[in-house]
Automatic annotation (TrEMBL):
Transmembrane segments: none annotated. Gene3D superfamilies: P-loop containing nucleotide triphosphate hydrolases. Residues 12-253 form the ABC transporter domain. This is ATP-binding cassette domain-containing protein. One of its GO terms (molecular function) is ATP binding. Keywords: ATP-binding, Nucleotide-binding. PROSITE patterns: ABC_TRANSPORTER_1, ABC_TRANSPORTER_2. It holds the Pfam family ABC_tran. SMART domains: AAA. PANTHER family: IMPORT ATP-BINDING PROTEIN, TRANSPORTER, PUTATIVE-RELATED. InterPro entries: AAA+_ATPase (IPR003593), ABC_transporter-like_ATP-bd (IPR003439), ABC_transporter-like_CS (IPR017871), ABC_transpr_LolD-like (IPR015854), P-loop_NTPase (IPR027417).
Length: 259
């Protein structure tokens, strides 16, 4: 990870962000989000289905057009002309990891630095230094035995840890993970969350979308709960079950009144 030019600037700052109006929802998907996340935080992003969690994560890397407001990543505005710089600071972990099944774990991790290769390197393959870093990352993820194994032979938890290593080879300051534990059994869930916690302890800022409140309480320091494209709760993880119960009764009350 390259040192940050100014660690006092927030890792992520969203000022009143609003996306396009959605006629099916009768509102914008994100509807005035104001959030600031500092370097070194571990944040769980929570909310019911359709609340806007994935849209918020995607907007942070410029994958969703913003109609109003501003997003800054490490002080840089998320705009087309700065998108390269923004994405250098952020690693994005998609649901399911999206590995290439026919490639080894090592080659999957090396795919994370494809965008950085010079023309010469793309002719001659990845430099030794990249291969060394990829191996070290796989070792850190507890996958030293699987370095040359094809991705199709891995368990769900192992796949997701390869995907984390692929994200980390870009040395990001921030890791965004969209439901990284979906479809995993208890041991896979623990492996993935422990890997995120380990990287967090080394200074990475982590924002992870979760549906499991117990996991959020166990791993995150801060919870942000979205509802209908707005921040419903932003605070510590101690009372999130109570916050969710309040949110559910409010939605039931609103649906009963609308009927
Ligand atoms: N590309 C898109 N085009 C149109 N509508 C979209 C698009 N992506 C998401 N939406 C809508 O925006 C709303 C929020 O979706 P989003 O995926 O951000 O929610 P979420 O909180 O991540 O949900 P889940 O927990 O189900 O993954 C949903 O109503 C969804 O249908």
């Amino acid at each position: 990870m390259e040192p940050l030019s100014d660690r006092n600037l927030p890792a992520i700052a969203c000022h009143n962000i609003r996306t396009e109006y959605q006629s099916t929802l009768q509102r914008p998907i994100l509807n005035g989000i104001d959030v600031q996340i500092n370097h070194g935080e571990f944040v769980a992003l929570l909310g019911m289905n359709g609340a806007g969690k994935s849209t918020l994560l995607r907007s942070l890397v410029g994958l969703v057009p913003i109609q109003q407001g501003e997003i800054q990543i490490c002080g840089t505005s998320v705009e087309q002309r700065h998108i390269g710089e923004v994405r250098k600071n952020i690693g994005f972990l998609f649901q399911g990891g999206a590995l290439v099944d026919q490639l080894s774990c090592l080659d999957n991790v090396l795919c994370g630095c494809l965008g950085e290769l010079t023309t010469w390197q793309s002719l001659w393959g990845f430099p030794k230094s990249d291969r060394r870093v990829a191996m070290q990352l796989l070792q850190k993820m507890g996958l030293q035995e699987q370095i040359y194994q094809k991705a199709r032979q891995l368990s769900g938890g192992q796949r997701q840890r390869v995907a984390i290593a692929r994200t980390l080879i870009q040395s990001p300051h921030i890791l965004l993970a969209d439901e990284p534990t979906t479809g995993l059994d208890i041991s896979g869930i623990n492996q993935v969350m422990d890997s995120l916690a380990e990287m967090h302890s080394r200074g990475l800022t982590v924002v992870v979308v979760l549906h499991d409140l117990a996991l959020a309480t166990q791993y995150a320091q801060r919870a942000i709960i979205l509802d209908a494209g707005k921040v419903w709760y932003d605070g510590d993880c101690q009372n999130i079950e109570r916050q969710f119960a309040r949110l559910q009764s409010l939605s039931q009350f609103q649906s009963a009144n609308a009927a």
